[in-house]
Design brief:
alpha+beta, 45% helix, five-stranded mixed beta sheet, 15% strand, 1409 residues, 46 helices
């Protein structure tokens, strides 16, 4: 804070734009004035709300579906992402979007009859009959020999069907053109039921995969089934006897069910009891290998019957018609012929407890509560014909689906008391409620309803349709595949098949609405004339898109996982019919295949877009263009789409893919990162994510042990699946490459030429970057899969054993996402490549041969630079062999360094650190440092780090990354230097006058350091020296980089600034050191005010010393500025110390005051208005007036008056406290406080000295009367034992000349103002006499013969003599006696008369001296 060329400073508060004005008049007018003392400050108001949701600023989409699609696009406002990272973000966002598909409970909670009913042969049909396998002739021959009973059924999971003919059982593979019958003819009784169940663990041999339960009228026999995969995708089975037979003893088995843990349950047609067949491996003392348990009728119930049975009796003719098991919840459901559903909880190994019983009346009661009007389909004449469990994986709430004979599906939810506290599938439910009713499709002939704007059917429910009456058998498979066998009233011997499934596309699209609608598409499938269904089963694995309800039913997500899709086998008396669920891509393929012309294709695309949204439409088109989808010809598998359909799909993808969007900007410059890619790009990301979804988050390996306890490493995903995914991704890449000129975003410059504005150009650039990122990821996926297959072609356990513990754990945790898109995964892959190469080298293979083979298969994991690195590592390994010659070793080290420098840009951090460790171990310090510096330079070839450092290291700058990359290399250099210093400290540097080997290596290493042209390295090295505490080493360096380093950072770091001062001082550059210290004292660094005073004091000292090359004017100017700053700093320090102990300030304000004053030097206006004036520190106010050259007399006089009054009051308070303590505890009282006049004299002296005797701040003509008046009025004289002349002595001691003091006293005497009138004039006479007397003695002491007094002094003494003579009886209280004063006046008058000269002197001077 300096004013070098301004003689007069601005007065604090003198200008209207300063805060001081408000402090003078009204505190409320000052918006920035601070409150030192307790004031109630109101709320400043609410925080302003800023801009709205940026998504609202997008261009308005064409419809709601477009808007929702755009909102689901991945965010593009994250800058500086690498292409792989950006592509991985797209994939993760797409997978997240698929995983958020609504769970069943979200849409299965309403009354609905929504069906998109199509013809079975229509393109939009959801199911398709693909095959019909006839019943073999030999089976029919056996069937015709039946005498008593026949039963037919399916074991769809093993592709077999069975038939029981009286007491014989025959099985055959229905997919085989000429199947062989596998028979069981050992039974002596007619077979009543057959069931294929899971075996209990650890009971049978490992070859037994299933247990075949064969029930007859008198016994149940268990047969072991061993299944094997046969050529052509079929399965062969063998039956094994188990010697496990249960004699029923009066009961029967007509319905059998098995649990996943091997438990077997059965029931008969004579009662509604549930039995369990318990079996074990060996007989025991009290139990046989098989036994029967009745879980419904307990032995004690014969003696204590059920109370309900006492009242109502046991239901007559009730028996079980179906048993189903929900293993996920450990529940078993039974259905009786009376439409009663009972729920049992499977507890423990042999316990089954009934928890819920829901009768037909209970169902009707729930239905009545649900429906507002009655329905003829759901009345007392309806019956439940089938039940299907819904697992907890599919939905937490919905448990069961029940089908009525009228075709209505009742979805039931069960709850328990614990379900409100925790979500556990092991808790037994206690009640069951109706949650949803799905009515049959309408049987009225009406025009097809138009879809609404959301692609949904209108919200109308037909509760009277009899289109599914009479339903005889119905089965539901996850996620809602429903097959209903309906017998018409006109043809009771023929079943019609009604199939439906949730329309996943519409359900997913309807998420934008508040409630998701239960949309289904359905069809009728003809099973043939006089065809009667006997059994139905799921051929393929059960559906599960995820392992939890959320996202479980998303068929769109898994439509590319398995080419076979989901197929069902239906056994009728005519044969086995295979029904396949059509994927959305199959529907799209059929839809565009069967229409004529471009207009027909466009109409289908519009229809698809309305139903499923733009993204799913374009995704389906892209999949078909990549040869996904149904070919429309029986006998050919999926993926053989005809060329015409493929071309149409390609045109749809190219034409209807949309355009990139750029959000509107609120005054901000648009960037490429803000671009939202087109639907075409989103569809590409979605399709790619669905291709790799099965392995994206999966780990690459799974480890275990074999039978001998040895480690085994296997692929977590089968190699066949990996190759399938790789083929699909390659097909996608081929499609993009073949159509690159036509696809927007891939054609590059051609797109930019079509841009009509800057916004469009940015949009095309963003689209190109997004598409290019996905292309890079696709290449990474294909190469990553090739790498994994190559890895498992080797002995993976050997490679695993070669890794260190960290790499082993990383390999265990490695996922395909990391391998495909993250640097860590690719670095680990390179480690594995190195292990593969090393293993092959040890086996005698050539490095280049192995590396070239790897490079051809997966080039990104083994590039040409990797080959050079392998060679360099080989040279380094040879150099470390103990038997090699030292000269040869050094040659090999030089060669390895040359090779490493050649590929420095491709050298990974792991490889670099490994090489440096080996160099240090071999004491090749210079080479280690050289390699680090070369790698650092290669990582920042544009020298962006230097420009970033030169610009002051701005935060958030992308150039910081390059600096950090260099910094990693520099850290290795420092490690080398530390190791070198440590090694050199343990050995002598000179022996026999010659430098030792370690001294030579040290000199070589430091030569590399000193001669490096890398300025960033030098700056970082000096910083490291400071961190290590080696400041002396830094200050002794004569490099010009040191000065540049310290100068650049002195304004940003206090340590550097201090070092710069020391640097200048050591080189006698005192003026430069003073400037640095002055700048540091004014800096924003966290320096206390006392430290700033110290800096300014040192700066003043250095500025006072002459420095070569610095002019005297510059030196004086700096000295002046530093002096003024020092004065301000002293005032600020005084303010801080006073405020710390000021009792008026509340404690909560102290931290704020300390933060403001114990730091940067504040402006004088701030110190005055904000602190000194408000706090009433008048002495500091006077010092501020002095520094600011403030010269308004009235203000200064008033401030002095306030100071005198304040001083007196403060001392008076101290005396009051002292006297109070003296009266209470006189023995403990300390010294008495000083008298008020003594404190005031000290104040006068301090202000006079600190203001340098400034006559404006210390105005004697004004101040002396004020002090005299104070002394007289407040009895600060002889009445308290004080010298009555202390006011005069105080001014004379400060150097005020006698002439000025006497003149002021003369004016006071003549003015006769209060209190110096009447008797008070005696005190004035006493002071005048005393002062003139001292003046005369002073003249006498000087001994000057020419010493004289002006005549006016004589005249003044004459007036005093006359007044004393006339007022001889006045009492001068506190002063001398009036008579003594009279004598003194006469004596002084005589002395004055002897020194008075002629009246020629001027009386106009009123100066200080």
């Amino acid at each position: 804070m300096a004013f070098p060329q301004t003689p007069a400073h601005a007065v604090p508060g003198a200008f209207l734009h300063t805060p001081a004005v408000a402090s003078r008049f009204n505190a409320q007018q000052d918006p920035v004035r601070r409150r030192l003392f307790g004031e109630n400050v109101g709320n400043a108001g609410q925080v302003a709300r800023f801009g709205q949701d940026p998504a609202q600023n997008l261009d308005a989409p064409a419809d709601v579906a477009d808007e929702q699609a755009l909102r689901n696009l991945p965010a593009q406002n994250v800058p500086h992402l690498s292409p792989l990272t950006k592509a991985a973000t797209y994939i993760n966002d797409s997978l997240k979007r698929d995983s958020e598909y609504p769970q069943l409970d979200a849409y299965c909670r309403q009354i609905s009859s929504d069906y998109d009913l199509t013809h079975a042969d229509a393109a939009w049909a959801p199911f398709k009959k693909t095959h019909m396998y006839p019943i073999p002739q030999n089976v029919l021959e056996q069937f015709n020999r039946a005498e008593v009973s026949t039963v037919m059924g399916l074991f769809a999971e093993i592709n077999h069907a069975y038939v029981t003919i009286d007491n014989s059982l025959y099985l055959w593979d229905y997919t085989h053109p000429r199947p062989e019958l596998v028979g069981f003819e050992d039974s002596q009784h007619n077979i009543t039921a057959v069931k294929l169940v899971a075996p209990k663990p650890n009971v049978f041999n490992s070859v037994i995969t299933h247990i075949l339960v064969v029930a007859t009228v008198s016994e149940i026999t268990l047969l072991g089934v061993a299944t094997k995969d046969a050529p052509g995708g079929t399965k062969s089975i063998e039956l094994y006897g188990t010697k496990m037979t249960l004699h029923l003893k009066g009961t029967e088995a007509r319905v059998i069910a098995g649990a996943a843990d091997g438990r077997i349950f059965f029931a008969g047609h004579s009662d509604s009891d549930i039995y369990e067949l318990k079996y074990q491996q060996e007989e025991k003392w009290f139990t046989s290998r098989t036994e029967k348990i009745n879980h419904t009728y307990r032995p004690w119930s014969a003696a204590v019957p059920n109370p309900s049975q006492i009242l109502w009796g046991k239901p007559a003719d009730e028996h079980i018609v179906d048993i189903v098991v929900d293993d996920s919840r450990s529940l078993l459901y039974s259905l009786s012929n009376k439409s009663t559903v009972r729920t049992y909880h499977m507890e423990g190994p042999n316990k089954l407890t009934k928890v819920i019983e829901k009768t037909k009346d209970d169902f009707l009661r729930d239905i009545a509560h649900t429906l507002s009007t009655g329905s003829p389909l759901l009345n007392e004449r309806m019956s439940i014909v089938s039940i299907s469990p819904i697992s907890v994986v599919e939905d937490y709430k919905v448990h069961l689906m029940a089908l009525t004979n009228t075709g209505c599906r009742l979805f039931m939810s069960a709850t328990s008391a614990a379900s409100y506290m925790l979500n556990s599938s092991t808790q037994a439910p206690q009640s069951m409620q109706l949650q949803c009713i799905k009515f049959p499709p309408s049987d009225k002939q009406r025009p097809a309803p138009r879809l609404d704007r959301y692609g949904q059917l209108p919200d109308t429910v037909d509760i009277q349709s009899k289109s599914l009456e009479t339903s005889r058998l119905g089965v539901r498979f996850p996620p809602g595949y429903f097959l209903d066998f309906v017998t018409g009233p006109n043809n009771p011997d023929e079943d019609g098949l009604f199939v439906s499934a949730p329309d996943s596309g519409r359900i997913s699209l309807s998420r934008q609405m508040q409630s998701v609608r239960f949309s289904e598409h359905a069809a009728w499938i003809d099973l043939g004339t006089k065809s009667k269904a006997e059994d139905v089963g799921l051929i393929t694995r059960p559906f599960a898109a995820t392992g939890q309800p959320l996202g479980f039913g998303n068929e769109l997500a898994v439509q590319f996982d398995d080419p076979k899709g989901f197929e069902f086998a239906i056994l009728t008396n005519n044969g086995i019919h295979i029904i396949r669920r059509k994927r959305l891509v199959d529907i799209f393929s059929s839809a565009i295949r069967n229409v004529a012309g471009d207009e027909g294709v466009k109409a289908e695309v519009v229809k698809f877009r309305s139903a499923y949204g733009p993204i799913e439409t374009i995704t389906a088109a892209l999949a078909v263009a990549c040869r996904q989808g149904d070919n429309g010809r029986p006998g050919l598998g999926r993926g053989a789409v005809d060329q015409a359909t493929q071309d149409r799909a390609k045109q749809v993808y190219i034409t209807f893919g949309g355009h990139p969007r750029l959000p509107e900007q609120d005054g901000q410059a648009a960037t490429v990162e803000m671009v939202q890619p087109s639907t075409r790009h989103t569809a590409l990301a979605l399709y790619l994510s669905r291709l790799v979804r099965s392995l994206w988050n999966s780990r690459v390996i799974k480890s275990g042990t074999d039978a001998n306890g040895a480690l085994t490493i296997q692929s977590a995903i089968s190699i066949d699946k990996l190759k399938e995914v790789q083929a699909n991704v390659e097909s996608l890449r081929s499609f993009l490459d073949a159509n690159r000129p036509f696809i927007q975003g891939l054609s590059g410059p051609a797109d930019l030429r079509r841009a009509g504005s800057k916004q469009e150009e940015l949009g095309f650039q963003g689209e190109h970057q997004a598409m290019h990122a996905l292309e890079i990821l696709m290449m990474g996926i294909t190469e990553g899969i090739s790498f994994v297959t190559t890895l498992f072609d080797e002995r993976v356990t050997d490679i695993f054993a070669r890794l260190d513990d960290t790499s082993r754990q990383q390999l265990r945790d490695l996922t395909y996402e990391q391998l495909f898109s993250q640097d860590g995964g690719k670095e680990l892959a390179k480690v594995l490549v190195k292990a593969i190469v090393n293993r092959n080298i040890e086996n005698g293979s050539n490095v280049e041969t192995v590396a070239d083979a790897l490079r051809r298969k997966c080039g990104s994991f083994c590039s040409p630079d990797d080959v050079v690195i392998f060679k360099a590592q080989e040279q380094l390994k040879r150099a470390s062999e103990p038997s090699i010659n030292p000269n040869t070793s050094r040659t090999l080290l030089h060669e390895s360094l040359r090779l490493f420098e050649k590929v420095a840009r491709s050298l990974t951090q792991t490889n670099l650190e490994s090489a440096i460790e080996q160099y240090v171990a071999l004491r090749y310090y210079a080479g280690a440092i050289q390699l680090c510096l070369v790698v650092a330079n290669e990582r920042d070839r544009g020298n962006a780090a230097f420009s970033w450092v030169s610009d002051g290291k701005p935060p958030g700058d992308p150039r910081a990354k390059f600096y950090n990359d260099r910094r990693v290399c520099y850290e290795l250099v420092y490690r080398v230097l530390l190791d070198l210093d440590d090694a050199s400290s343990r050995e002598p540097e000179i022996i026999d006058g010659k430098p030792t080997l370690i001294a030579t290596k040290r000199a070589e290493a430091y030569d590399v350091v000193s001669n490096s042209p890398d300025e960033v390295f030098h700056f970082d090295l000096y910083e490291w020296y400071i961190q290590q505490g080696w400041t002396d080493r830094l200050l002794n360096i004569s490099s010009p980089h040191v000065t540049t380093f310290l100068r650049r950072l002195a304004s940003k770091d206090i340590e550097h600034a201090d070092l710069l001062c020391r640097f200048y001082t050591m080189r006698a550059q005192y003026f430069a050191a003073a400037k640095v210290q002055a700048d540091l004292a004014q800096s924003d660094f966290p320096i206390s005010i006392k430290d700033r005073l110290t800096l300014l004091s040192k700066a003043k000292t250095n500025a006072s010393v002459m420095t070569t090359g610095v002019s005297r004017q510059e030196q004086q100017l700096l000295n002046h500025d530093v002096t003024e700053l020092l004065e301000v700093a002293h005032i600020q320090d005084d303010l801080l110390e006073r405020l710390k102990v000021d009792s008026r300030i509340p404690p909560e304000r102290q931290p704020e005051i300390n933060a403001a004053l114990d730091g940067k030097i504040q402006p004088l206006s701030e110190l005055f208005n904000g602190y000194a004036d408000q706090a009433g520190y008048y002495d500091l106010c006077l010092l501020i007036f002095h520094v600011a050259d403030y010269r308004t007399p009235t203000t200064i006089a008033q401030t002095w008056s306030n100071l005198i009054q304040q001083t007196h009051e403060n001392v008076a308070e101290q005396w009051a406290v002292y006297n109070e303590e003296l009266r209470g505890r006189p023995a403990q009282v300390g010294n008495a406080p000083p008298q008020p006049y003594e404190v005031l004299v000290t104040q006068l002296q301090d202000i006079c000295h600190r203001s340098s005797n400034d006559s404006f701040i210390f105005p004697v003509p004004t101040l002396l009367p004020e002090v005299c008046r104070y002394a007289f009025e407040n009895a600060q004289d002889g009445r308290i034992g004080a010298d009555v002349h202390w006011p005069i002595a105080a001014f004379l001691t400060l150097g005020v000349n006698y002439d000025l003091v006497v003149r002021v006293l003369e004016q006071m005497f003549e003015a006769q103002e209060v209190p110096f009138r009447g008797a008070g004039r005696a005190r004035m006479v006493e002071w005048i006499t005393h002062t003139v007397g001292l003046w005369i003695r002073d003249l006498g002491r000087n001994g000057r013969p020419e010493a004289r007094l002006d005549p006016w002094v004589g005249e003044l003494m004459a007036e005093c003599d006359n007044w004393v003579s006339e007022n001889g009886r006045i009492n001068n209280e506190g002063g001398a006696d009036i008579r003594d004063i009279a004598r003194a006046v006469k004596d002084v008058r005589r002395a004055v008369d002897g020194l008075v000269v002629s009246p020629v002197a001027s009386r106009s001077s009123m100066g200080f001296y």
